[in-house]
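We modelled the chain as a single entity of 153 amino acids. Its sequence is:
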Amino acid sequence: MKSGPLARARSLSEPGHVAFSAETPVAFVTGAAQGIGRACAERLARDGFIVHALDRHAETLERAVSDMRAQGLKVVAHTADVCVRQQVASAFDSVNRVDALVCAAGVYSDASIETLTEEEFRRVLDVNVIGTFIPAQEALDRKSTRLNSSHAN
């Protein structure tokens, strides 16, 4: 049997229960309700991280987190819009450190340049640019954060 923090994290698995340990690595994943974000959240949880899953779609996020917990993965749901600093900060305030950050929240518009509205374009920029900046800044603002540039995207 393997030893070390990741092995201990795996041994703490109970569906619907998140066991916290000072040695268990902590990851935050935005856009975690579906797609690439969900896949990243699942992978990190399988690798022994306690994953804090952020998404603005509460029902979809709850279903995804429930599915992951049913597999024995340690995942915490945070309904948050990555463009709203207070919501993102509230999620990060729930931990003492951050070991990994995946910014997978993103939106696009399939409108042509002729039909794309300024409002739609601003939403794409907000989520895809500001929505990466805010979580990264919040992670790095934590005094005990061990996050370094090789673990942020």
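As a brief sanity check on the tokenised model: Strands lie at 26-30, 50-55, 75-79, 100-103. Residues 1-17 have pLDDT under 50 and may be disordered.
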